[in-house]
Every structure is written in structure tokens, then in C-alpha cells.
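Troubleshooting log. The previous structure file for this entry was overwritten by mistake, so regenerating from the original sequence record. Sequence copied from the archived sheet and checked twice against the printout by T.R.
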Amino acid sequence: MEAKRIEKRGLSEISHPILENETVKLGIERKNVFEKIQELNEKMNIMNDTVSKKILNMDFEKNIADKLHKELQEYKNDLYFQLIKPLIMDLINMRERMRKAVKYFSKETGEKKVEILESYVEEIETILENNNIEIYETKKEENDYKVKKQRIVKQIKTSDEKLHGKICNILTNGYIYTEKDKIIFPERVEVYVYKNS
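Regenerated output below.
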């Protein structure tokens, strides 16, 4: 019986350290897992903070971009008005002078009426010059049609082959924007077209 006790005792003494080792290993593993979970939680918290900051920054940047776009649009609109304001003011002044002249126009003589009308034509020319618009007119000697500077509004039939493509009449002046050397309103012309009779 004692041998059995010794056996049992020996077994318990032998198996007890093994169980302790297992328990210690499990405790260490649990501790490692717990530490890794804590580490992951900390990383997740850092990532959440980073994402939250990014979202706040994106909202802030979007608000700034919207505000800048609105300010830029207002600036562009104001700039456009500032560019055309001198022209608008000239037109307003001219309209007011014309309104005054209309009141007395019927009482004036024929010559005086023509002078008044010519003064408005000159005033318009001045307004155009102030806005870098030059008026051009082709000389009678230069009677060849030029595609860029002239627009045909009527073709006049001719039996003279030498006149084909030549300008018959210049109906309007042409207008060129001098800063860009760009024709904004070509001369309106009538051109001869050869037709064999």
C-alpha cells in the first residue's frame, strides 16, 4: 500500500511541475496575446485619430476651396465690369447728349441736323479708338477682294473677265482690334463676278 502511495505521490510530484509549466506557458501566451491586443488597440486609436484629422482637413480644404472659388468668381465678374466700364460710361454720356439733342432736333435747320449727326459719328469713332478699335477702309486703287478683311454681301454680274473678283462698291468700313491685330468686323463689299454672256 505504501508503494502505491509512493507511486501516487511520485506521479503527483512528477506531473505537478509539468502542469505548472503548462500553466506558466499559457499565462505567458495570454499575456503576449493581451499585449498584442493592447498594441493593436493603440494602433487602431492612432489610425482613428489620423483618419478623423484627415476628414477634418478634407472638410476644411473643401470649404477653403469653395470660398476661394466664390471669391475668384466675384473677382472675375468685377474685373469684367471694370474692363467694360469706360465703354459703358462713354455710351451713357453719348445717349444723354443725344436725348437732349432730340428735343431741339426738329427746330434745327438741315445743315445743323447733319452737323449733329456727324458729331455723333465722330464721338463713336473716339469711343472705338479709346478701346483699341481701329477703323479701316480699303482705297479705291486696291480693288482686289481680300478674304480676311472683307465680306461679300452682293455679287455683281459682269461680262468683263478682267473685273472678276474685283470690288465694285465698299458698303461699310472694317474694324480691327489693334492689340491683337484681329479683325472684328470686316468691310462689307459688292464684288464683280464674271458671267459669259
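Confidence is low (pLDDT under 50) at residues 10-14. Archived copy saved in two places this time.
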